[in-house]
Amino acid sequence: MAFGLAAANVRERYTHAAELIIGRQLDKAKLLQFRVGYRHLAYMQELAGYNVKRDMPGLKEPDTEALYAHCRARLNGGPARWERFH
């Protein structure tokens, strides 16, 4: 429970800081288009004119877990090549 409250507090601080930087409220619908892990960064990058990829894996997704498993196997002598979608 405390972790959830801390995470909510961090999100509120990011939103407040971003609003101070751009001088207006964030577009909540646009903000929700990005993954939670990099939502505010991606929003600000697009605002600055960068093209942000929307298909990047999140922290707890099958692609990410597969990459971590590959890295563990690689450290134990497994193959170096990793393909995102098997």
Protein model, in words:
The protein is mainly alpha-helical and 86 residues long. The protein folds into two domains: 2-54, no CATH class; 56-86, no CATH class. Helix content is 56%, strand content 0%. The protein contains four helices and no strands. The longest helix is centred in the first third of the chain and has 21 residues, at 2-22.
Q: Strand-residue fraction?
A: under 5%
Radius of gyration: 17 Å
Euclidean distance between termini CA atoms: 37 Å
- Structural shape: elongated
- Poorly predicted tracts of residues: none
N-to-C SSE string, H for helix and E for strand: HHHH
SS-based class:
mainly alpha
How many separate domains? 2
Q: How would you sum up the major sheet? A: none
Number of helices: 4
- Multimeric status of the protein: single chain
What number is the mean pLDDT?
A: 77
Q: What is the number of beta strands?
A: 0
Overall helicity: 55-70%
